[in-house]
Amino acid sequence: MSPKPADDLRRSAEIRLVQMPPTAPEIAADELLHEFHLYQIELEMMNDELRRALITIEEARDRYLDLYEFAPVGYFTLNSAGMIAEVNLTGASLLGEERGLLLKRRFAQFIAPEDRDEWHQEILRVALHGDRKSFELALQRADGSRFQARLDCLPRTDSGNRPVLRVALTDISERLLAEEELRIADIAFESREGMVVTDAQGIIVRANQAFCRLTGYRANEVVGNTLALLKSERHDEAFHQNLWSSLVRDGHWQGDIWNRHKNGKAYAEWMNLDAVKTPDGRTTHYVGTLSDITRNDEAKAEIHRLAYYDPLTQLPNRRLLMDRLGQALAAGSRSGRHGALLFLDLDGFKNINDNHGHGVGDLLLIEVTRRLHEVVREGDSLSRLGGDEFVVVLENLGAESAEAAIQAESVGEKVRESLARPYQHAGREIHCTASIGIALFHGHDEAVETLFKQADLALYQAKGATKNCLRFFDPAMQATMEERGVLEKDLGMAVKRGQLQLHYQAQIDRSRRIIGAEALLRWLHPKRGLVAPDVFIPLAEESGLIHSIGHWVLKTACAQIKAWATHPATRDLRLTINVSTRQFRQPGFVDEVRRVLVNSGANPSRLKLEVAENLFANNATDITNKMQELKTLGIGFSMDDFGAGHSLLSYLKRLPLEQLKIDRSFVSNLATDDNNAAIVQTLIAMGQAMGLKVIAEGVETEAQLEYLDQHDCTHFQGDVFSQALPLPEFEKLLDAPPRKTRTPRPPRSPTA
To answer: What is the pTM of this model?
Structure first.
């Protein structure tokens, strides 16, 4: 019902009032008012319907504009002169220009020069005045780059009845490239190598002419069959099961294989099989390539090479690895030293193959091989078992299993860290880590097959743990290495947590007077208690933590020297600290010492650095120069464990030493070993001849002290006086009454 105009309502009401009896005016007015309200309600409903219709039209218009603007096709409207009157966002993007700059420009400006004449003379005229037409042209973007395009042209007229041209522009470069690749693929398929395509179930769907020549079968004879048609008796069923298992698991298999010709003769082929997968990882086909390798002597030599080496990485294969491992076992039996077998498996390699293709996977395996060559030791053996499995054979490790395990772990960690670095391909980073299983061997204690099982089991444990880690087969050895890892982690936090301490062992002259002390590092672990230095110092050296720990020792010692300087009983004491070889060889070590001295305010002449003989084994000139620089600051030097190593006597006169320390191993056996006694006498005489003080460490008995004193040793250190003590106890020792002294003997002449 449509609403009545207001005048009609009024006239209707008047007529009804005239016709009404005069006795019912109030009733008539109520009825008219009620009818008027009904018309008002109906009018509002109509207005609501009109508003909803307008909203629907607006939404439809917005959807149209969205579809128009963001369609995958560029839309243009050209006037009769070929000027651009309208263009959507996609069209502007395809031409590489802002939409506002495109309007009222000639479309022909974006057509490649070689196609412009055709556009002006033929296409525009035909398109404007004919039927719908499609053309393929080369277009040129605003930045000069080119692409192939399809133009679908539809003639229309505008609101002024003038002819216009609607143009739908599609970039067909990828389609043309795909067509070209298909043509190339067709040509490649008919190459000299035999090629065959199967479906996901292994049923042959296509074979090229070269395949037919190699096998003797016609194409229609192999289509519908499987590759089992070519089986020979040279391989057992397990070989073929492993082949297909590897192909299904890895998506790739390659190797030499003996097949049977249609005439019954067996021949050797090199075969590559690859899975064709959809983006979601589903296998749709398998593609195989085959080439005959039995036709000449060179090919026969190639067969021999393929029998022992992996064709992709050129590493020894399983067959040659078994031979080399047997040799390693024999060599270990002769030398008495351990070896190790490392199994490596790349984590997530299948995903890399699936996501990036087997070509990228092969390149990754080649790069893995290169990195392995970089980090394994010279003389160690590398091998690829197949797929993403590699093997490293380490020989000539330590004679003790614990030492060998540390060495094997060190190599394994270098391998793991190297393989974990990102791989670069086509401007992208690919991440791939490795899990490693380790089995130690000692001569022929275990058979080769047993070692393989042990290393494989350790690898399985590594893959099942966190991946990107290594595991030992021996549970006890694994526990030891894990314990070592925990200890290393705790040691890394020891400085921050205030767990390191310096204990002080007195150094005495011949009159039994304390002239200084050696600061000895101690680690008070909250759970383990006092950890022995011979446990954590080597760990600090191997892990590199010795740098931060050494800095803490230097800083703490200098602070103590500064504190002692304010008390008469301690201001003349000299404090000796040990400096590790790795710490001393740091390029900035001299500057580090200088900064610590300045910041602490310590007197450099109260500090003595104790260095080991092996410090001078390499680049002795650089070490000597550093010592000279530190000597100019007032710092003294003592050579630790003198006589225990391979002393570079030619360097002794050039070094700014003031003291030699006789190793405790010579002191401990003075009373029972004449050779040790003779060595001690020689070392003392050598020090005197060079003008150096000589201190003996590890003096534990009065007899040792008496012997050393009689042979003119001038300084002593050991438990006969005091053990290494915490600072408060050491300072109490300084306040204690002096021990019974003896009149010092005059020093002997160097020739005495």
So the answer is: 0.46
